Amino acid sequence: MAKVSNPSVSPSTAAANMAAAAASGVSQYRWWILLGLITAAIMEVLDTTIVNVALPQMAGNLGATNQEIGWVSTGYILSNVVVLPMTAFLAARFGRKRYLGFSIILFMVASFFCGTSHTLLELVFWRIVQGAGGAALLSTAQATLRQIFPTEQQGIVQAIFLMGVIVAPTLGPTLGGWITDNYTWNWCFFINIPIGIASFFLVTTFLQDSVQANRSGSIDWWGIGLLAGGLGSLQYVLEEGQSNDWFNDPTILKLAIFSGVCLTALMWWELSPKNTHPVVDFRILKNKALASAIALFVALGFGLYGGTYLFPLFAQTILGLSPTKTGLALLPGGLATACSALLCGRLLNGKKALVDARLLIMFGVGVFMLSMWKLGHLTTVSGEDDTRIALLVRGFGLGFLFAPINQVAYASIQPHEAQQASGLINLARQLGGSFGIAILGTYLVGRTDAHRASLVTYLYSGNPVMESRLSGLAAAFHAKGFSPEAAKQAAYAALNHTVNTQALTNSYNDAYMMILVIFVVTAPGIFMLRKAKKMTVAIDAH
Known about the structure:
This protein is mainly α and 542 residues long.
């Protein structure tokens, strides 16, 4: 017998009852949703660094040069950066559950085909697909957590999520080195498949579509085109500029100009009243707290990825550590980040935070700058203990930055703006890292040449210190069986090696001090952040 609806219940009341029932379901399963989302986010972030250690083995297996194999990383980051700002549009267009589920499936499929690739072109293509799928696993996942958890739980929830996002890049080199040493590079991709299956099951089983989903309206094709052209060209310039001598290369120069024109036109078009459905809503940046937080995230990306880029080079070229030992040296710092992030989450959790988030950010900036000072004063005879302490301090400081800045940024916006804000925040972090690696790489080369030019001024005939050093080295080589002439040549070569090593060490010190200066310059942005007010955030029932 058909069930007769109650005519006394109005449509609005029925909708409210349905929303209340959905809210009850979300409340019951949201911790399972958190587990699925953080698993997906860790899988995505880990994949940006785990592959780097395996690049030499990939180059050998695929018959590629070192420059060509670099596109395995460049292709992934390029597509990821292009899609990140569009995640709000895509989630609204297709619904966050469908978009997240599709992105996880796309990431897994691309990972499988990456692992089975037999040519460089095939591998790079699937890495580009993988990067496009990975964009939602960060921004849409983070925005979803802002919408399904109440305000009083946001501190600890965001801390747990960000802990995975921050720690994963640190653990990537360690895990990648272990997989490469014990298996083959293919397993750096295959490892994503079981993780993705678990994440897909949790997300699609317990998550519902957002009430903000808007599957109607025109599509901003002009915005999408300008965004892809501008950010894609910019990312290529940042990734390939150093190896191609920057603007002395015609291709780099043309793409830099093209990127500037596209991004300028994008800003104008997205803010134009004629554009009723912008793919990226830059109007949200009128919120000064959010705009300041995004600027701080650029600096954080610069420091996070820049530091992760510098230390392996320093450890392997100066300290002589293997890739696996280098990864293990970074591990304690990652654990320190996890501890401090959870501590921040506890301090910021609840309807009334125990500590003003801005004070935690100031403390984190101070601790991070202290670690840069310590790393900027290492020498050629520094040991693992010296670097371990500095990396522990660095990791501890990072945990006091990401979670509080997120808390302040999201506290000043409405729930329906969370997806757009999340896309811009993650884009800022990624671009900050790209700028950091590009700038620091070029800076290293320039400073090494400058330090070498300065050091060789002390190498002249008649310098008693140099003559004494050469005599000692020549005697040592002669004692090992070298002829007098060969011992003299070996002594000169050893002295040249010492000069090069010292020049390189000084340049690494300068690079770490540059990161410190970046933080000093951007630190005043903390005062633009407003104290997080007590807010009543409606839980997104759908």
